[in-house]
């Protein structure tokens, strides 16, 4: 049994492929509870892809090519304490992506995406803490029929902060792409809610980089968290 998914160009990360977090969130919709999505190929834009459900998970297919695979996950992660909106705004003011960005039109963290188009999550290092943070107020265009931000956009918000947490204040020295994202959504996110997205490093092994991310809502309430694997590509 399969369903069609089309990744609109608005939701790109690299110029010609879908933002990893967004694509993971679209595929996670076919799995109950926490999910782990592995990206096998760059998700193509603008054409129907098949989400094929099978025992134990779901695969995203472009013809015979496996683009991504998803399974249920038991995600256990120690999440740092919340960052205040004021501290997140201060950290975001030093976002290195404003000076140098490999994918400046990324749906999540691209500085060339305007308000109401991209998420414009711009993480910078928080003073005195080994993590990056950025404020985020979800645009009303991201809301589903239930009045909450659609899950795929919450997944997207958990994507790029993890990458920026793997680099110092100078930003990317080598290009990285998302290879795997496991996420657990805990509570709905409201449009216009004053959120804070954070990311922190979990280590590295060869070309693989590991990071945690989390999204907090009003009053520091934990809304979602994730564990990501990033892969150096250059």
At a glance:
This protein is mainly beta and 234 residues long.
Describe the structure.
- This protein is mainly beta and 234 residues long.
- It folds into 2 domains: 2-72, Thiol Ester Dehydrase, Chain A, CATH 3.10.129; 85-232, Thiol Ester Dehydrase, Chain A (Roll).
- Helices cover 12% and strands 34% of the residues.
- An 11-stranded antiparallel sheet has the order 1-3-4-5-2-8-11-10-9-7-6.
- A hairpin with a 6-residue loop joins strand 6 and strand 7 (132-136).
- Helix 1 packs antiparallel against helix 3 (151-157).
- The longest helix is centred in the N-terminal third of the chain and has 9 residues, at 20-28.
- The protein is globular, with a radius of gyration of 16 Å.
- It starts with a strand and ends with a strand.
- The model has no long low-confidence stretch (mean pLDDT 94).
Shape: globular
Average pLDDT confidence is 94
According to DSSP, the number of beta strands is 11
* Helix/strand structural class: mainly beta
Q: Helical content, roughly?
A: 10-25%
CATH class of the largest domain: Alpha Beta
Alpha carbon gyration radius: 16 Å
Count of all domains = 2
């Amino acid at each position: 049994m399969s369903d069609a998914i089309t990744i609109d160009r608005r939701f790109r990360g690299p110029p010609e492929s879908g933002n990893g977090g967004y694509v993971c969130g679209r595929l996670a919709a076919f799995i109950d509870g926490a999910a782990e999505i592995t990206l096998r190929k760059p998700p193509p834009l603008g054409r129907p892809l098949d989400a094929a459900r099978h025992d134990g998970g779901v695969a995203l297919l472009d013809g015979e090519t496996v683009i991504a695979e998803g399974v249920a996950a038991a995600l256990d992660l120690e999440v740092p304490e919340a960052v205040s909106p004021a501290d997140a705004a201060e950290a975001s003011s030093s976002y290195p992506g404003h000076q140098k960005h490999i994918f400046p039109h990324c749906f999540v963290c691209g500085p060339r995406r305007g308000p109401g188009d991209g998420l414009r999550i711009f993480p910078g290092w928080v003073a005195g803490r080994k993590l990056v943070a950025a404020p985020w107020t979800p645009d009303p265009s991201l809301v589903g029929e239930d009045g909450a931000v659609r899950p795929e956009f919450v997944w997207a918000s958990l994507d790029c902060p993890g990458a920026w947490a793997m680099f110092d204040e100078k930003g990317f020295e080598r290009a990285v792409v998302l290879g795997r994202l496991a996420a657990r959504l805990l509570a709905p996110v409201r449009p216009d809610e004053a959120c804070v997205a954070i990311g922190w490093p979990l280590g590295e092994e060869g070309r693989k980089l590991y990071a945690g991310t989390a999204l907090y809502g009003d009053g520091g309430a934990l809304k979602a968290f994730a564990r990501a694997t990033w892969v150096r590509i250059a």
